[in-house]
Amino acid sequence: MPKVSEEYYEKKRREIIDAAYRVCVRKPISSVEMKDIIAETGYSHGAIYRYYKDLDEVLHDLVITVNSENRIDEKLDTILREAGTEHWESAVRKSCEMFAGHIREMGTDLLKLSIYSDMLAMSDPERVGRLMEKLGAEEKSPLITLAGAMGAYLMRVTAERKLKPMKSVEEILQFMIATYHGIINGYVLSECFQGETVKGKYDPDRMFSCLAESVILMMKG
């Protein structure tokens, strides 16, 4: 039997990952089974297991693929570096503008995947914990980037500009993360459901603008 090339191997793995993505967008990840992905690929049961031993290995590579194709760390680092601490208010506003644009670029399918991942973490925290351990530094999601870069930046701003925030930087960061989640959930609901009570009410640009002004007010004390 001829030796399988690395290019062929990676092509097949990518086809499996793409199939897993389509399945995980259609239904909550907590209810996805390996047989769903097998059916989506059209491959035989044995063919799939040549590349992945179980579902969590597939999910591991799916997370890495999604994160690597939707990175914001360079954009965020550039905004914070160019502003320095002197123009920190502008940096907060520009960062939030970038988050809004990023959400639009990702689209509802990817955002639904993020929401389903959160649901899996709530329903099966031990499983997600094991997956996170395997991912390690590769779990470079936009939210992880936001938490790390903005947390360090706001701490530096507080020290260098001698600010006295009304809440600790940690609490402000938690507020940003919670709001980020809320905006995503509201945006996906308004785009997918189109109900009169939510239609057009979760515009990312407006919502992230509100977040920016709220953070600035809290930082000023």
Task: Tag the structure with descriptive keywords.
elongated
Helices and strands in order, then pairings?
Layout: H1 6-26, H2 34-41, H3 45-48, H4 55-69, H5 73-83, H6 88-123, H7 125-135, H8 142-160, H9 169-193, H10 204-220
Structure, explained:
The protein has helices at residues 6-26, 34-41, 45-48, 55-69, 73-83, 88-123, 125-135, 142-160, 169-193, 204-220. It is an all-alpha fold and 221 residues long. The longest helix has 36 residues, at 88-123. The protein is elongated and about 60 Å long. The protein starts with 5 loop residues before the first helix and ends with a helix.
Low-pLDDT runs: none
Q: What is the ordering of alpha helices and beta strands?
A: HHHHHHHHHH
Largest sheet: none
**Helix content, binned percent:** over 70%
Structural class: mainly alpha
Oligomer: single chain
Concise overview:
The protein has 221 residues and is mostly helical. It is 76% helix and 0% strand. Helix 1 crosses helix 4 (55-69) and helix 6 packs across helix 7 (125-135).
